[in-house]
Design brief:
Strand order of the largest sheet of chain B: 2-3-4
Distance between the termini of chain A: 65 Å
CATH topology of chain B: Arc Repressor Mutant, subunit A
Shape of chain A: globular
Oligomer: heterodimer
Number of helices of chain B: 3
Largest interface: A-B, 36 and 40 residues
Largest sheet of chain A: 9 strands, mixed
Strand content of chain A: 5-15%
Number of helices of chain A: 17
Number of domains of chain A: 2
Distance between the termini of chain B: 19 Å
Chain lengths: 411, 103
Amino acid sequence: MGNKDSYTVKVRGDEVANRKGNTTALDSLDIELTERCNNNCIHCYINLPADDHHAQKKELSKGEIQEILQEAVSLGCLTVRFTGGEPLVREDFEDLYIFARKLGLRVALVTNATLVTPALAKVFAHTPPLMPIEITLYGMRRNTYEAITRVPGSFKAAWKGIHLLLEYQVPFVVTGVLLPPNREEVEEFESWASTIPWMDTAPSYTLLLDLRARRDSAEKNVLIKGLRPSPEDVVTFLSRRQEKYLKEMKEFCSKFIRLQGNNIFSCGAGIRGGCIDAYGHLQPCILLRHPDTVYNLKKGSLKGALTKFFPKIRQMKAENPDYLTRCAHCFLKGLCEQCPAWSWMEHGTLDTPVDYLCEVAHAQARAFGLLAEGERAWQIEHWEERIKNFIDTTHSSQHAKEVCNGLKGQI
Amino acid sequence: MDSKVKFSAAYLPSEELVCRELEGELIIVPLVAGMGDMEDELFTLNETGRAMWEKLDGKKSLKAVAEELAAEYEAPEGEIEKDVIGLAEELIKRKMIVEAPQK
């Protein structure tokens, strides 16, 4: 005891989340409230029509979601992400939101903002989510936006929602999806995003475009693949802020570049977190819907999934000979997005190399000077030296430009 | 709201927050805007603050809280009183505690 300057200690929500140790079973939980969406985006990996009553009937009820939230809190969960589809198409969204907040959860809402009403903006202003709402914005003009969403009036509705949040001072951030219709608007988008009071960094983008996570439409997968940027375009886009990009990639390489061997899980999927789909299936991550990795919460508990089921599936080893030849020996594994979810979406398996991701990782490696033209990363013996050279090289501003520009020429 | 601390009054946590214990740490999660200065702010209490917070049950007066703490910590009552009032002032300012209705 003794007089102190202050007895209450203010902490940012993320600080609490990050400084937690390993004793809680659950840190954060994603809940896909619905797969339905009022937009019909050309690239979407999940959406069903907003009026799909068959899907709606199968969705978790409000009571079922509330029970899940209560169990999540009992396991130490601090953050719940409401995503979709478009979460706001659910008529009980506000009830679920308030319920979660009253349990002491921070709520991360992912939305297209088109269904934000003055009443809902007031709710967010009075009972703040404690995390900025994440709005995906598809374009700065009606023709580009609606070329992607394919819903007339969606552009106007999105901007109306955004202006309501601004008017009621509800914190939000925006993210982009790089697609052919909006590629010419990147600068304009970023310039506008920098005026949003709660954006302290440039917006993040979805670049690589996931295929249908339910593997429910081969036709749409063809369309999505056709919208993806080429590996060269990915490098060009990522390296547009050259010095920052190089600095980040060096830090990344110093921490995460190593051989993965035959373990198919190299990410944190299923460790003190997970994603519940609209129908009550808990997945290690939002994209991984392979039947062997999904746990039916209607027949079990969150605790059972987190403490028994997920640890078991994380031990899974790759058996695919192609994976064992390539990915298991590839030092670019840290740079590469290859994971069980991508393998599932592209091939319906957990351990098949995804060529597109492989090419993107190799294009990046060539840009950093880690590989020469024609080299394949899994064939390199002394890769540690290459990584060390890359990390240790001091890139002056001019040199950084040369690295990014010059090597772009060779990819 | 009366922001002046009444030493003879009992206080209790506001209904506009949720108090959670995460890994042994008390975390105060605001339910309404205005408790924090940033949009994503949560609160925790230092050791002194937590010991006092746990006694704010809406029944014991701050004076009784100070007396209990002085006995438990074998500390001078004057010093403890100063702490209790300091914390109460801070919590009232942030609308985290309210005066309990008198019976």
